[in-house]
Amino acid sequence: MTHKFLMPYMSISVEAALLDPLVPAQVAVELDVKDMKLSGGQLSALTVTARFVVDGTPIGEGAAAARIVNPATYQRLRGAVPTVLPAAGEDLLACADVGHATQRNVMLGPSSRPFVWPLRVDPTHPIFFDHPLDHVPGMLLVEAARQAARAACSRPDVDFALFEAEFMKLVEFSYPVDVVVTRLESHAAHGVMRVRLLHEEETLMSLVAQVKTPH
Length: 215
What we know:
Helix content: 10-25%
Largest sheet: 9 strands, antiparallel
Strand order of the largest sheet: 2-3-4-1-6-9-8-7-5
Domain A-factor biosynthesis hotdog: 98-152
Number of helices: 2
Protein name: A-factor biosynthesis hotdog domain-containing protein
CATH architecture of the largest domain: Roll
Strand content: 35-45%
InterPro entries: AfsA_hotdog_dom (IPR005509), HotDog_dom_sf (IPR029069)
């Protein structure tokens, strides 16, 4: 409880599973912890792989890396930055454009130039901020990337079939951040995109995703 948790890497893939959309799915997660490293007798790093299963049927896999650092190291990595929470932005994309039913779930502002959207952070969001945080959480960044992919395709029903995300630097509340989409490949039902989060042209997160469009 005295140390900080950093996640430099995460990947998720989703299998094509035939699930009844009217029946709540009971998802079991099988975890394998490996590559554990110690520093001064304390756990300092590990990797976790995950397998998601519904009624014995695999529906996806994932992997994530973690670093565990003491408060002094954590502060050194962050440097001196303001930690004042941002105000919830009102200039947002329409929720229907990014596949949501309410504006509160929108993470992007109106585009300033093609395939670039400003990140919007609502620190009162009950899911992304279900506990106190001193920076923008990775889960919100991944959701912002998914919304940017949808906006780039002009298809609110586009979703990730798989993605690999690398988190280079903490996204501070005080940072103005652009969400930038680059198309790498595109064909009928699937495409590959790179989404980067930039602060003053520095890449804070890079996510490469294969996206799928429902028929």
